C-alpha cells in the first residue's frame, strides 16, 4: 500500500516549497494539486469562458484535459498535451483558479485524478482539501499556515525575484480575497482536518518546517 502525506493551508503558506523538499528527503512524489486547478483556470482564461457562469464552465469541463508528468522528480503540468507549468504561475491564473475551483464539475474531475495517483504512489500532496476530502485516511496530515503579512511578503519577494512587477498592498488584498473564497465556498472549503497537525511557519525557517514534517512522517512509516 502507498504512504500518503496531506498538506493543506492558505495561499502563500509555503506548502509547495516545503512539500517538494520533504518529498526529496523521503523519496516520495510531490503532487501540487493547485497546479491542476490553475491549468483548468488557464483554459478558461484562454477561451474567454465566463467564469461567473457555472453552466459556461461546466460546458467546457469535459474538454479540458489536465495531466501530470514527472521528469527527474519535478512535476510538469500538461493542458491538452501542452506544457503549461510556467504559465500557470501567473497571479491572474491563481486568482482565476480560486474562482473556478468552487464549481463541482471542476472539483470532481480533479478529485479522481488525485486519488488515483495517491493510490499508486507514495505521495506528499498539497492543496486546500487534501486532508479533509481527497485523502481522508492519510496517516499524516499537516495544516501549514502563516500570517497574511508573512505570506504577502514571501509572495512579493518570489515575484520580484522572477522579475515581475508587483505591489505589496495589492498582493495582500489578493491573498485575503483568496483566503476568503477558499474558506467560504460550499464544496470542500479550506479547513484544518480534525486529525491534522497545525504548523504555523510565520517564525520558522524552511529547514525547520521540513525537519518537523519529515520527522513526523518517519514516525508513521
Ligand atoms: O495553491 P495554489 O495557489 O496553486 O492554488 C490555486 C487555487 O486553486 C487556490 O486558491 C484554490 O482556490 C484552488 N485549489 C483548491 N483545491 C486544492 C488546490 C487548489 O481549490 N486542492
From TrEMBL:
<comment type="similarity">
    <text>Belongs to the cytidylate kinase family. Type 1 subfamily.</text>
</comment>
<keyword id="KW-0808">Transferase</keyword>
<feature type="domain" description="Cytidylate kinase">
    <location>
        <begin position="5"/>
        <end position="218"/>
    </location>
</feature>
<dbReference type="Pfam" id="PF02224">
    <property type="entry name" value="Cytidylate_kin"/>
</dbReference>
<feature type="binding site">
    <location>
        <begin position="9"/>
        <end position="17"/>
    </location>
    <ligand>
        <name>ATP</name>
    </ligand>
</feature>
<dbReference type="InterPro" id="IPR003136">
    <property type="entry name" value="Cytidylate_kin"/>
</dbReference>
<keyword id="KW-0067">ATP-binding</keyword>
<keyword id="KW-0418">Kinase</keyword>
<protein>
    <recommendedName>
        <fullName>Cytidylate kinase</fullName>
        <ecNumber>2.7.4.25</ecNumber>
    </recommendedName>
</protein>
<dbReference type="GO" id="GO:0016301">
    <property type="term" value="F:kinase activity"/>
</dbReference>
<keyword id="KW-0963">Cytoplasm</keyword>
<dbReference type="InterPro" id="IPR027417">
    <property type="entry name" value="P-loop_NTPase"/>
</dbReference>
<dbReference type="InterPro" id="IPR011994">
    <property type="entry name" value="Cytidylate_kinase_dom"/>
</dbReference>
<keyword id="KW-0547">Nucleotide-binding</keyword>
